[in-house]
Input
Amino acid sequence: MPTIRRRRRKYQVQVRHRGLISVSRTFNTLKDAKAWAHQLEVQVDRRDLPADPKVLQSTTLGELVARYRDTVSPRKRTAKAERIVLGAFLLHPICRRRLSEVTRADFIAYRDERLRIIKASSLKRSLVPLHNLYELARTEWGLPIKENPVSNLNLNGSDQRRERRLLPGEWDRLMLAAKACRNRLIPPLIQLAVATSLRRSELLAMRWDDINWVQRTLLIRQSKNGHSRIVPLTTAAIELLAGLPRGPDRVFPISPNAVRLSWEKLRRRAGINDLHYHDLRHEAISRFFEAGLSVPEVALMSGHRDMRMLLRYSHAMRQTVLEKLDAEKFGR
Output
């Protein structure tokens, strides 16, 4: 807060605030000094005063990461995973350096070091919270950081997106192996994944009250991107849900880890290699395109908000495109 001192026949106003440059001015009258002091109070509240670059010399990158981990991450759906990522990053020597010393070159060196151990796609995911914390530090925390050293960091990695689909006979082998699972909810969970393209987390969070049996729709209260949506349910999906034992709350009262363990066991039992549970979502979306659904219609089912993400399924749209072109007799 501003302080006013009487010096000889004049009045000196001085403002000192952590993270902001110290400002002072001298006035002939106390009235003018108080008016200017009040104006400075307003500026301090609005963070309008210039930031003090010395604050970067007294703060380490690790302190910034810890603040983000403890105050921002807990509010996110990815809090658990993000806490692990940030905890591992805090062990790196770069976190002991002062913010005034950390440069883009340091993160380039960190990138090169990590790429010798993990894939580019994994590194990209771990850099997301670091990019976000720098943006918060600049825009909301009032730190005088001129540029985000994590922005546009070239990972030089090839496209790691999977395009694994079920091969002929694999679906029958999967379902045969699933019937041997002790948990009787695993087979319908897998069937619904292919019938709806829902993520594992969305299926496990589904509640009986979310199903509209008359309109044949399902309310997804919160998806991966944080938004809710209503998904149409096919007749096959409705029949699967109607055949499940009705409980008081969740349709699939199973933990994600239980699903993971059951999936690995039944996949080995079926003799199928390199097939992830999430590949069922890719299979479902591919089938939607092969059935002739448009991009907006598929997005309604899958929950993609960025239509560009669906372009990776262009392989499933080729046959539909050819059929439409042949029907119009293009090139004749």
Notes: The chain has a mean pLDDT of 84. The longest strand covers residues 10-15.
